[in-house]
Amino acid sequence: PKQQTLAVIKPDAMEEHREDIMEEIRGRGFSISQLKETVLSREVAEEFYKEHKEKPFFSQLVDFMCRGPCMMLVLTKENAVEDWRAMMGPTDPDKAKETSPQSLRARFAADILHNSVHGSSTEQQAEEKISFIFGDISTDAELTFT
Ligand code: CMP
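^ thats the input. predicted complex w/ adenosine-3',5'-cyclic-monophosphate below
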């Protein structure tokens, strides 16, 4: 069965790595079912990352995510949640360089905050974040293209 996940190309990766990342996404068999480029407001970034509200890095994270455009993508394929997380690699690029040198974060990320890409961690979180970012049209099959 096909699965959807929400992927985000973060502001640190937009200028230099967006095209490479999008090409690699397509090359790994994901369909890009929806996408939009957007500058997040503080309000939206705070809500998007509400699970991290109590973390010491929360305000830095929100500042960073609002500093320029992000690319928001709905990715569809079998096992999309797990496969996109594997493609990203660990949150911390230093760890990514050790354990998965081919991953996007190993190759493109500067540090644990500025880590180039985001992906939902579970199917349930993916559904919640997709409808938060894209609204209820996210399941409309007619919008799917590759
Ligand atoms: P992401 O996968 O989008 O989920 C939460 C984000 O918070 C994470 O990527 C990083 O951008 C950031 N983050 C996670 N842990 C830390 C940390 N220890 N210090 C700073 N930023 C972090």
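The first helix runs from residue 11 to 27.
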